[in-house]
Hints:
Blueprint (H helix, E strand, L loop, with lengths): L3 E7 L7 H9 L9 E5 L10 H9 L5 E4 L9 H13 L3 E4 L5 E2 L3 H34 L12 H12 L4 H8 L3 H11 L2
Parallel strand pairs: 1-2, 1-3, 3-4
Antiparallel strand pairs: 4-5
Helix pairs in contact: 5-7, 6-7
Amino acid sequence: MSRVFAYCRVSTVEQTTDNQIQEIAxxxxxxxxxxxxxxxxxxxxxxxxxxxxxxxxxxxEAGDVLVVTxxxxxxxxxxxxxxxxxxxxxxxxxxxxxxxGGVDLTSSAGKMTMQVIAAVAEFERDLLVERTQAGLARxxxxxxxxxxxxxxxxxxxxxxxxxxAAGETIASLARAFGTSRQTIMRVKDAASK
Length: 193
């Protein structure tokens, strides 16, 4: 008989995996606490680099079933999710995703679903990049400055240059202007160009 494992992940310590565990139980999967892996780590961290997921991989054997509530529990990057599912399939482990109707992602239908989801995610990412680039181009054409506002105004930067040339140290200038040493060094370097 197949052993069933659950992988539940949240991104921050303010969140809890309790809802995921309840969803899996409500879907009819009987998972013992020893086979329930929970962890708090960003989905942007590749699954194979997560401490809890590594422990899970050490426990899994051919014929086992891994249940997740949503694909994004495995990762936010579609390439990582795909590689993770393919790696598990290569081990002989089935992956069930409740949000996709409990489909086994390692089956033919599951693979097709994964490809469609990956294509949609890539399309959305491309649209986001296009909209961002268009917005930045519009702002530039309007003559607006992009990026973070400088820590020091033009007059303050001039004062920093004058006082540095007079022999004041970077640390004392940083204290006097209420900024970081790095900011003072950038002003100093810009003056020497």
